[in-house]
Design a protein that fits this description.
By secondary structure, this protein is mainly α. Helix content is about 70%, strand content about 0%. The protein has 30 helices and 2 strands.
Length: about 625
């Protein structure tokens, strides 16, 4: 029997790995990957400050210290190469699949099922969990590390918990409890774990003794603490919208729709999307009644099964509905009505039921091996190609949002598409996407990013107008202020830009970038003493910042201090070796010091980067023949 278990498990894991293999070729997206990895200073080294920040602060409107610890380890191993992050996500999903398989097998075996029956049910449950297309968002999206990490730990904890049954619950399940706490530190959805242990106890008919009550009290304590922390963090960061909590009837309707919507997506995983918004669904009394009727029918069937002594259906239905509760629309979460990732843990209950049902039907047929193999092949043929194709949607930000605007065209999805296209340098496409976004709804962030795409195209007058429209309502938003100041500088409106950069520096006093911009605007007005004071302050904050060093080099050149100017330009090129402006200015400073042979190399490099650069050509022409 052990050999058969290993063979079935290996087959499940191999098919799962194959279905998700395309995700290893994917890159980063522009949806939260920057917050979690690309622009996350906490993962840039094993310093005491970084570790303190990971464990004591929130980021991306969540408290996920264990997730950031994994990213810290990864960054120290392979930097920002996305393949490594995708590989770890896939390995964690395989671990979660393994523990789903092990959990179902142990649960059914302890419940009195035949070992062969338990193996068949576990194989189907693990296979469906592993290769279902609804898993793609959790696996192929680097920022959803929290899903696969929490899922693997959650299922390991419940499997360890069931191991206590073999010892007749003689001791406190310390190992399971420890892993459960780790799962909570990966994602707060794990707070439902204590309730899942109660459902398993009911299935196994565990007696509710004094020890049982004490155990459950200890289990609930970490869940309450994590729930409070999550509530405070998300309320502060607008992940949870407290003003909508009073709309209980509306929230309940949305929750009913979401629960039934997920059931449908499990059965028919087509037209999946990264974004399901409320307006797309048009909640009506008739639809609400239908959704509520379906859920009531499920509850009624579970109750009837319980009365007949069938404890599996209540366990499966309870698992689905209770683990879904933290991400149901009863607690409004941002703009989304539902999300594929929210079903990572709740689907275990549904796949447990699926595995049990298919195996029971196969055993009842009298030709169990043939029927089991046929249904396994049908599951693989029906789900694996969809998963393989869905992984390609998450290749990068542009592919993700091109797919999303097809299923959910709105101002947010088109804006995210435009932002992805901006990151890729596709500025005309980005402008078109931003215009569609603004046509749907002229939001504040739509105005800001329209200003950004105009500025990057060099259309600074239009950019300044869009920034001004944004800042009229939110004059404190530093990214818009910065873009506005840069466009003003391009329009030779340095005095106005100085005022804007002063506001930026006051809003974020520890930023050398704002001081570098302020110093640049002062240089443009020949206010050299003030510029030096500002740039020296910026150097004190970060002596290696390339922008600060470049502007300091310009200042020293104007003061004819060529030695210091050379030093600053070389520091700039250490961080930005392809900065052609620094290359040209370095060549100029070397020529002015009569170091002609040294001047030739940076000027030639600037021409390699930008053939025909007039300043570089002029400076090369001034050099004597070698």
């Amino acid at each position: 029997m052990k050999r058969h278990t290993i063979l079935v498990l290996c087959a499940v894991l191999a098919v799962t790995a194959a279905a998700f293999w395309p995700s290893l070729r994917n890159g980063f997206t522009n949806w939260d990957d920057n917050e979690y990895v690309l622009e996350n200073p906490w993962i840039r080294g094993w310093s005491a400050d970084n570790l303190w920040a990971i464990w004591t602060q929130s980021r991306a409107a969540n408290y996920h210290p264990l997730v950031f610890m994994t990213h810290l380890a990864e960054h120290s191993l392979w930097g920002l190469r996305p393949a490594g992050y995708h590989a770890v996500n896939l390995l964690l999903h395989l671990a979660a699949t393994l523990f789903v398989f092990a959990f179902v097998k142990r649960l059914l075996t302890l419940g009195g099922s035949d070992p062969r029956f338990a193996l068949g049910a576990a194989g189907f449950a693990g296979l469906a969990f592993g290769i279902h297309p609804l898993r793609v968002e959790s696996v192929a999206w680097i920022a959803e590390r929290k899903d696969v990490l929490c899922g693997a730990l959650f299922m390991l904890a419940i499997w360890l918990y069931l191991g206590q049954a073999r010892r007749h619950w003689a001791r406190f399940p310390g190992a399971a409890f420890s892993v459960y706490i780790l799962a909570c530190l990966a994602k707060s959805m794990a707070v439902t774990w204590p309730v899942m242990t109660i459902l398993c106890d009911l299935y196994l008919k565990r007696p509710r003794t004094r020890r049982w009550w004490m155990e459950k009290t200890l289990f609930i304590a970490p869940a309450v603490l994590i729930a409070i922390v999550t509530w405070l963090v998300q309320s502060q960061k607008r992940g949870i919208q407290p003003e909508k909590l009073g709309r209980l009837w509306d929230n309940a309707q949305s929750a009913c729709h979401a629960a039934v919507f997920y059931l449908w997506k499990v059965v028919a995983p087509v037209n999946l999307s990264a974004f399901y918004s409320h307006p797309d669904w048009g909640i009506t009394p008739a639809k609400t009644a239908a959704a509520a009727a379906i859920l009531l029918l499920l509850a009624l069937l579970a109750a009837l099964a319980w009365r007949r002594g069938d404890r599996l259906l209540p366990l499966a239905v309870g698992w689905y509905l209770i683990t879904l509760l933290p991400v149901s629309s009863l607690v409004p979460l941002g703009f989304t009505f539902a999300a594929d990732r929210y079903l990572y843990l709740p689907a275990v209950g549904l796949f447990l039921l699926l595995g049990y049902g298919l195996t029971a039907a196969a055993f009842h047929s009298g030709r169990s091996r043939l029927v089991l193999a046929a249904w396994g092949a049908m599951l693989v043929a029906g789900l694996a190609p969809l998963t393989w194709a869905r992984c390609g949607v998450w290749q990068n930000g542009e592919t993700l949002w091109l797919d999303t605007v097809r299923t959910a065209p709105n101002h947010l999805t088109y804006r995210m598409l435009g932002m992805a296209q901006m990151d890729m340098g596709k500025l005309r496409e980005a402008e078109a996407s931003m215009r569609i976004s603004l046509a749907h709804s002229e939001t504040q962030y739509g105005r800001h990013y329209m200003g950004e795409v105009m500025r990057l195209q060099g259309r600074h007058q239009e950019a300044a107008e869009w920034y001004a429209r944004f800042l009229k309502e939110q004059d404190w938003y530093v990214p818009a202020l910065t873009g506005y100041g840069l466009s003003l500088m391009a329009l030779d409106r340095a005095p106005e830009a100085t005022d804007v950069f002063v506001r930026c520096a006051n809003r974020e006093p520890g930023s050398p970038v704002h001081l570098a911009n302020l110093g640049w605007s002062l240089l443009a007005q020949a206010r050299h003493d003030e510029a030096r004071e500002v740039l020296d302050a910026a150097l004190a904050l970060d002596p290696r910042d390339p922008m600060v060093n470049y502007n300091s080099g310009v200042l020293r050149m104007r003061q004819e201090n060529y030695r210091e100017a050379e030093t600053f330009y070389r520091r700039t090129l250490e961080k930005q070796p392809d900065n052609r402006y620094a290359l040209v200015n370095l060549g100029l400073t070397l020529r002015l010091q009569s170091r002609y042979n040294e001047a030739r190399a940076p000027l030639q490099r600037a021409l390699d980067l930008a053939p025909g650069d007039p300043v570089a050509l002029e400076e090369l022409a001034k050099l004597p023949a070698p």
